[in-house]
Write a structure and sequence with these properties.
Blueprint: E1 3-7, E2 10-13, E3 18-25, E4 30-39, E5 46-52, E6 58-59, E7 67-71, E8 77-82, E9 91-101, E10 103-108, E11 112-117
Length: 118
């Protein structure tokens, strides 16, 4: 059973930093992407950053230069380093992993709240 467990969210002042972690377990398929999405109140979930296996990382324009996504060597954990946080970065951040084993598989974490006070 695939589990994605996020941690690292919290309350921070504008200009501060947070580091999110997502530990994956039970993955028995070929991973295509590992990434982070977020959902602000009243808005749709949006891509923040993604690492394709064997490809280049991609970031939302709004976070370029401020956020950095990375994984550990075993690809069991994906991180999101968030610097120079702004009030508009507030939302629930979700870890996502997708891949293939016969069919396409897509999994989400439970979400972690990030609140940036201005």
């Amino acid at each position: 059973q695939v589990q994605l467990v996020e941690s690292g969210g919290g309350l921070v002042q504008a200009g501060g930093s947070l580091r999110l972690s997502c530990e994956a377990s039970g993955i028995m398929f070929t991973i295509l992407h590992m990434g982070w999405y977020r959902q602000a109140p009243g808005k749709q979930r949006e891509l923040v950053a993604v690492i394709p296996t064997g490809g280049s990382t991609r970031y939302a324009d709004s976070v370029k230069g401020r956020f950095t996504i990375s994984t550990d060597n075993a690809k069991s954990t994906v991180y999101l380093q968030m610097n120079s946080l702004k009030a508009e970065d507030t939302g629930v951040y979700y870890c996502n992993v997708d891949g293939v084993r016969g069919t396409w598989r897509n999994y989400w974490g439970q979400g972690t709240q990030v609140t940036v006070s201005s």
